[in-house]
Design brief:
With 179 residues, the chain is mostly helical. The chain has one domain. It has helices at residues 11-44, 55-72, 79-100, 104-136, 141-149, 153-159, 166-169. Helix 2 packs antiparallel against helix 3 and helix 2 (55-72) crosses helix 4. The longest helix is centred in the first third of the chain and has 34 residues, at 11-44. The protein is globular and about 50 Å long. Keywords: Membrane, Transmembrane, Transmembrane helix. The chain crosses the membrane at residues 12-32, 78-100, 112-133.
Length: 179
């Protein structure tokens, strides 16, 4: 049939191109996240800035920085504990998945519980990001948190990578000066 159409369009090629573009966009966002968090870790003086490049440790580093901001405001530090707990449960679920996944009722309950763990992971990382943003760019914390919910936090972290945290600067002003 495509013999009669000089510009035959193959839909499989379209999906392959879209998949390749999505993969490239994912890698680009990952690099932006890591670069931004690495630089922010250096700006705060927190040790182990290289955690920014490791996926689970990236979230832990964000939680450490969020707890740092909470502590500076006299609030309870819980983000690191929450991130570790949800991470351990997620890894345990991943290890146990092959055992329970295909059992009829147990598998359904396991998939539901595993989805809730994923949702808890998102909530923990967004909370950590929110407190991180309140320390680095208080006036834009809400907008950057929305980007974190959409998993576009690499853009926000890259944009504020050179900011001095409010806790270090000692003054909470509406917009951070660029140093």
């Amino acid at each position: 049939m495509h013999f009669f159409y000089p510009f035959y369009y193959d839909y499989h090629v379209t999906w392959e191109l879209l998949g390749a573009l999505a993969s490239l966009a994912g890698v680009a966002l990952y690099v932006l996240r890591a670069l931004g968090l690495y630089r922010m870790s250096k700006n705060t003086g927190l040790g182990r800035a290289w955690f920014a490049w490791v996926p689970f440790l990236h979230e832990y580093q964000c939680a450490r920085m969020g707890d740092r901001a909470r502590k500076a405001q006299g609030k309870t530090e819980f983000l690191c504990s929450l991130t570790i707990a949800v991470g351990v449960i997620a890894v345990a679920g991943f290890v146990l998945r092959p055992i329970f996944w295909h059992i009829f009722l147990v598998g359904w309950i396991f998939r539901l519980a595993y989805s809730l763990v994923g949702l808890c992971w998102l909530v923990a990382s967004v909370l950590a990001d929110y407190w991180l943003y309140t320390d680095f760019e208080p006036s834009m914390a809400a907008l950057y948190t929305i980007l974190s919910v959409l998993r576009l936090d690499g853009i926000a972290k890259f944009l504020i990578r050179s900011n001095v945290p409010v806790g270090v600067a000692g003054v909470c002003i509406p917009k951070q000066p660029k140093y």
